[in-house]
Amino acid sequence: MNHWKFGVSKCANDCVKVLVTLKHFWPRAFLCCSVTFTIAMLWAAVVPSAGGYLASRHHRSAHLISYAALAFAWRGTLTRTPTWILVIAVIAFGFLQEGVEVVTHAHPYELSDAMLDAVGALVGAVGARVALRILGN
Predict the structure, then answer these.
(1) CB–CB of 116/64 below 8 Å?
(2) Is the Cβ–Cβ distance between 128 and 75 less than 8 Å?
(3) Distances from the Cα of 114 to the Cα of 27, 40, 98, 107, 128, angstroms
């Protein structure tokens, strides 16, 4: 019986060590993803052929998903920044990106895309906030 208790205790201690290690790893992973996603979004705004990588039927979902991922990553990076400030910043980035596309992609401003970006930013930031609460941050 003592061996069983020792085994459970050792396993619990090992689990705590892993969680502590992950707690220090996640901020770095979120930062790496945040910077990578931001660079990818800027690249997509500047390179006219970037939209050609997706079929036109995926255009709207790509806006929604990419801005949700961007906001999720930045929310995980900037945990002390209020969620509403982060959402406004990502939405502003989306509106700015659509403005850049007017020049680089030679098409009119697409307000519907900017609105999809905004919805994605809100969904991603709220999702990250929930995830961080579950993780205890």
Answers:
(1) yes
(2) yes
(3) 28, 17, 6, 14, 21
Rounded-to-integer distance, Cα 86 and Cα 79, Å: 10
User: 90 near 66, Cβ under 8 Å?
Assistant: no
Region 113-122 average pLDDT: 94
Q: What is the pLDDT of residue 121?
A: 95
Cα angle for residues 111, 40, 82 (degrees, 5° grid): 70
Instruction: Average the pLDDT over 27-55 and give the result.
Output: 80
Cβ contact 42:99 at 8 Å: no
Instruction: Kindly state the average pLDDT of the residues 59-77.
Output: 89
Residue 114 has pLDDT above 80, yes or no: yes
Q: Cα(65)–Cα(85) distance, rounded to whole angstroms?
A: 20
Answer left, alpha or beta for residue 136, where phi above 0 means left and psi between -120 and 50 means alpha.
left
Number of H helices, E strands in the chain: 4, 0
